[in-house]
Amino acid sequence: MNSRQxxxxxxxxxxxxxxxxxxxxxxxxAQLVSNWDASGTPNGTLPTGxxxxxxxxxxxxxxxxxxxxxxxxxLRENIAAFxxxxxxxVVIFAAYMFALHTGIIxxxxxxxxxxxxxxxxxxxxxxxxxxxxxSHAEPNWFVGIRTPWTLSDETVWTKTHALGGKLxxxxxxxxxxxxxxxxxxxxxxxxxxxxxxxxxxxYSYYLYEQIGRNGDSGSETQV
Length: 223
What we know:
Shape: globular
Helix content: 55-70%
Distance between the termini: 31 Å
Number of domains: 2
Number of strands: 2
Order of helices and strands: HEEHHHHHH
Low-confidence stretches: none
């Protein structure tokens, strides 16, 4: 399967979202529940017209952006080196958006389920594959853990992304573990995600400073 076919698969999820919206529209109320708190209690609504087309339109717009990134990045040849992983992330992201969109519509059609569980399971899948993606990402301006230090040194980039990949995957696992903790489940996603962000930023700075102190500047990336 080539890149065009993988992106085509992602666009199928957009099309399916449109179909779901069109089929469900006549049976939906004027306002759709669109927000839930951490305990899964609805706490916000959107007009049906907006709610039906928000996710398909947003996903379509982001797919266009995802398609442009490998073409406009000054280091596009590096993206080409991990392009299959990038493309599959786009497919999984489109599937994630489709799952949320379908879940919102199903809930408003009267199907009873804990929407928070759906969000967390879908987010766990997205986070896990994000770990796969960053583990393979080569230096570029758009994809990966982009700090001033990872963008300035290839060794810092490689080591930071190796750690980041593990932390993203750990976040996914902890998110699923959190499902056993009821109202606290969301914290098993939010806290590890914040820890991952802070740790990778701090680690990239630490590595860069260590390389500077050791006088090893031979691995600098030209950006």
